[in-house]
Amino acid sequence: MSDMSTVDSYRPLLMTLAYRMLGSLSEAEDIVQDALADYAITADHASIKHEKAYLVRMVTNRSLNLKQSARKRRELYVGQWLPEPAIAVDGVGCASGALGSATGKSGNPADYIERQENITYVMLVMLERLTAVERAVFLLRETLDFDYGEIADIVQKSEANCRKIFSRAKEKLQGSAVEGGGAEVIDPMRLNEEQAYAFAKAFMQAAETGNSSALVDMLAHDAVLVTDGGGKARAAINPIEGSERIAAFFMGNARKGTMGDSFLPVDVSGQPGLIVTQNGQPARIMVFGWDAEKRISRIFIIMNPDKLAGVTDRFAALS
């Protein structure tokens, strides 16, 4: 019988893989829980030489199946769909932070997500351009450093085919913009965290004070704003494109008094972002991407209360 405490040590890796496959913390947690439970009960442990690879295969296959069915559900989604944010407050990474427990893992799915700077929230959005199999091959190779033989065994493709799939996935992602075209998005971690938070807060302060020219100056000409309300919070149905229109959007919110009460710097799925609070509660998560000129080229705003539930619960616990 395998030592299940050792098997459970793979939970952060498995959660990270499932979350990046699905863009949903709750679905990732369900898949990992089911995989570990099935492994404990049904697997022939004596015949398994490599537990890690075996568990990764279980989670990948379950994620592929769910990803395929999720495409049909997405067709019914109201407005733009964005990945659920995994939040940490101290900027250290998603496995720790002021929203976690003082003893480490709090039981919140986000606390098990391992930070890797090559897969940020902006990259999660870009991964939506890939098919489920392309996404699996890319993540197994790029983030877990599996060799093509191992990947071929997991996704049930030939090794040569996996090489082609990975190359095709890289081509789709390389230099591509997200959700609506436009300027190339640079790796947000090329801006250090202090710079990124300063940029984000300066942008929000300009909106609060009604400084529209400052907003436009901070935005790339072909910037894109994507908001996700899921039909449960007021959000733009389509992406808003262009610096002038985005500035007008924020200026309108400022006039209505809906900019929020405060802005809390957070780690959002491996990159700097902001929690915007309203009446002392999280109202939205904001993530920014920059272009090569270090102007804001992408703004993602998550307002769907279902995707903010974990953050809201942790705020309630702290209060």
List the helices and strands and how they pair.
Elements: H1 4-8, H2 11-22, H3 25-42, H4 51-74, E1 87-88, H5 121-127, H6 132-142, H7 148-155, H8 159-173, H9 193-208, H10 212-218, E2 219-228, E3 240-241, H11 243-256, E4 262-268, E5 271-278, E6 281-290, E7 296-302, H12 305-318
Parallel strand pairs: 2-7
Antiparallel strand pairs: 1-4, 2-3, 4-5, 5-6, 6-7
According to DSSP, the number of beta strands is: 7
Please report which band the strand proportion falls in: under 5%, 5-15%, 15-25%, 25-35%, 35-45% or over 45%. Answer: 5-15%
Q: How many angstroms does the end-to-end distance come to?
A: 44 Å
Global Rg: 20 Å
Q: Percentage of helical residues?
A: 40-55%
User: What is the mean pLDDT?
Assistant: 84
Specify the biggest β-sheet.
Answer: 7 strands, mixed
> Low-confidence stretches at least 5 residues in length (pLDDT < 50)?
91-105, 177-183
Shape: globular
User: How many DSSP H or I helices?
Assistant: 12
